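Pipeline run #58 for the internal structure catalog. This entry was flagged by the ingest filter as a single-chain record with no existing model, so it goes straight to prediction. Upstream metadata was stripped on purpose; only the residue string is passed forward. Reviewer on rotation: M.T. Logging verbosity set to normal.
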Amino acid sequence: METTRLLRRGAGLLALLSVALMSCTGPGSPTVPPPGGGGDIVGVNPDVPAEPGLQTSVFKYPRANIPAATGSSMGMIWNRFSMAVKKPCTNCFVKSIQANLKKPDGSVANIDTGQMLHHMVLASNGSGKKDPTCGSFFGTGQRFFASGNERTRFNYPKGYGYKVNASDTWTLISDFMNMNSTPAPVDIEMTFTWVPASAAVKDVTPLWLDVFQCGLSEVPAKTGQYNYNYTWTVNTPGKLLGIGGHLHDGGTYINIKKGNGQLICNSVAGYGGPGFEAPMDHSMGGMDMGTTHLSSMTQCLSSSEAVPVANLAQGEKVVMTAYYDSNAHKQMGKEDVMGIAVGWILPN
């Protein structure tokens, strides 16, 4: 697996996301849960009131043919870049986004079938679109959505959304794993809801916090209870309307707070549930994976700018800490881990 880890690092441009399948916790939890504590229902996302004229677009991104696993390692596709991928609409506001992984026959591909959507990221290059923490991430532009195998759904609050201009070009970064002894063709199926630009919707700015900010997103796995953190100096002041995290197996929760200690949000991991329980232990080589996998993360979502998750002032500090506990939940052997939180800001 050391070779695999080096290859994954050498792939060099990953940045996930991602936020995972989430349920609503309101504007921050009142206390920090212990590692592995807290959390909401596995696989449930918050619903928000529908905007007038809401439309839905469902389509697939370019197929990935994941190689077969061998006796020593999984079959993998590392950080595939797909340029100028399809947008659901133009001159519109995206209201929700969710990724899924499907087989060619339309059935769901997941841990129970031996495949994993390790991560995927969408970034937009367009006029004035900058990533608050990285400027333009490796030339791909502004990172605005990510998903791990938890199959994140982003729901923007009523009255807010992500603007898609006619001139914007989207880049997809995707990474896959196959635990079966035969190759696996899979499709990323995207579901978007959106409203036209004429709707009464305010544009939000995505915020990406990452324990390896502007880099590979992955950091070395350790054993027992441990954590990684990242501190952002606010350069996009405004109202934080929502935020949630992404971890790898072994992760317990992500804590986001201000530099003065004020809690912003706890994004807590859930494990198991339909699709996320393997029928057999897929451990191979140096990867002791077990049968139960990370399947959800909670998020903090505000109902409006009148009651934001947090007010962010120019120059203040925001600290994100990702917690892991390999004793509570099996990690993927020595595979590197992630700690990411994605939010959305209504700028001042």
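catalog note: Residues 2-347 form one domain.
catalog note: The chain has one helix and 21 strands.
status: ready for reviewer M.T.
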